[in-house]
Specification:
With about 90 residues, the protein is α+β, with helices and mostly antiparallel strands. The protein is built from two helices and four strands; from the N terminus they run ββαββα. The strands form two sheets. Strands 1-2 form a two-stranded antiparallel sheet. Strands 3-4 form a two-stranded antiparallel ribbon. Strand 1 and strand 2 form a beta hairpin. The protein is globular, with a radius of gyration of 14 Å.
Length: about 90
């Protein structure tokens, strides 16, 4: 699956209290190729999830937060991905 987004920024942080490391990506969705915006959003989120899970171990935790930077009044959408389940499906 080709990426439907571009990476704007990437930040890696150490959380010593939890003995873990986290990576925060800021991405921008590419404009739709197709006329149907719903299909474009589904393909974009699927592409983002695939990218987020590509280098994960079964014990890793992955979360994705989606927000509209143009209209901040739109509610935040958060996804929690179970790496164990997701890696078995590929």
């Amino acid at each position: 699956m080709d990426r439907k987004f571009t990476i704007i920024d990437e930040i890696t942080r150490e959380y010593r209290r939890f003995n873990t490391r986290g990576t925060q990506l800021t991405v921008r969705l590419l404009p739709p190729d197709e006329i149907d915006p719903v299909s474009h959003i589904i393909a974009s989120v699927s592409s983002l999830c695939e990218y987020a899970l590509q280098n994960c171990d079964d014990s890793d935790m992955v979360g994705i937060s989606i927000r509209n930077e143009v209209n901040m009044r739109v509610k935040l959408l958060e996804l929690a991905l179970d790496v164990k389940i997701s890696s078995r499906q590929t």
